[in-house]
Amino acid sequence: MIGRRRSRGVDIWPGFVDALSGLVMVMVFMLLVFVLAQYFLGTALSGSEAARDRLSKEMAALVEQLSIEKKASEGLRADLARLNGQLAENSAERDKLSHDIAALEALKTELEAKLAEMGDALEGEKSTSMAARAEVALLNQQLETIRKEMARLAAALDASEKLAADQKVQIVDLGKRLNVALAGKVEELQRYRSEFFGKLREVLGNRPGIRVEGDRFVFQSEVLFDSGSAEMGIDGIEQIRALAKTLNDIAKQVPKDVPWVLRVDGHTDKRPIASGRFPSNWELSTARAITVIKTLIANGVPADRLAAAGFGEYQPLEKGDSDEALARNRRIEIRFDAR
Description:
The structure is a single chain. By secondary structure, this protein is of the alpha+beta class. It has two domains: 64-188, Helix Hairpins (Orthogonal Bundle), CATH 1.10.287; 208-339, CATH 3.30.1330.60. 73% of the residues lie in helices and 9% in strands. The radius of gyration is 44 Å and the shape is elongated. The model has no long low-confidence stretch (mean pLDDT 78). Pfam families: OmpA. Residues 213-339 form the OmpA-like domain. The chain crosses the membrane at residues 12-41.
């Protein structure tokens, strides 16, 4: 009987060794998978950095082009104002000369009539007739000079009007180009928003309780906070730190004149809460949003680029009373938006 018991004790040990060897092989396999995952993730992040640098250079070139075109537009407007002033002065001078010509024409007609009368009455007085003819010749010479000056002014007016029309066309074309450039700037901001959410997905991964819905990145409250609390746990702080790092990377690419803001909205379910610190769900949802804001500021996000809001239970995603519906309504929403 004693021999049998000793035999059974010896038979258990090889099985234990085999199980331990299998466990070691599994751990080695998991370590290999982790190393490969780190390598591919590093490769993807380096490609993203290169794309971000390219976008930064393109944005700088666009801003410089906008500045040059703005200066050109201001110069064209100044030239147009100066030409309009000259055009008004030339028009006034032309009107004055036209009046003078009309007066001279009337005087010429009057003199010719007098000469005709004098020719009938004083045929023999050649000296008087010659003087009158000389006066008429002088008047004709003056009229010819005035006509030439009128022709010169008319040509100058035509040239000024043509130049003004050309510059108006240039200003209209410049306005169209500026509108296209501004539209491109808005499109760039949309790309930054898409890049922000894309990088956030890469950093946070497909974790339970974190999802993207439209233009919002949604954290279930349980991922960041304990029930009925606005104090963030260690895991929640790490995830908000990852969010802050991604936001700071994207913010470096966005021009300073683009009025973007990251909005944090707190939501609860419809179950009432009553405590000394949180008399209602309004206070709880607002306190949680402010906690996220403070964590982002502590990790380098500028305070003037952040906004917090609490909605309590009044913006539910689902109307039901099931545990799943209530859990879905308890959430923190992150929006990358214009101010």
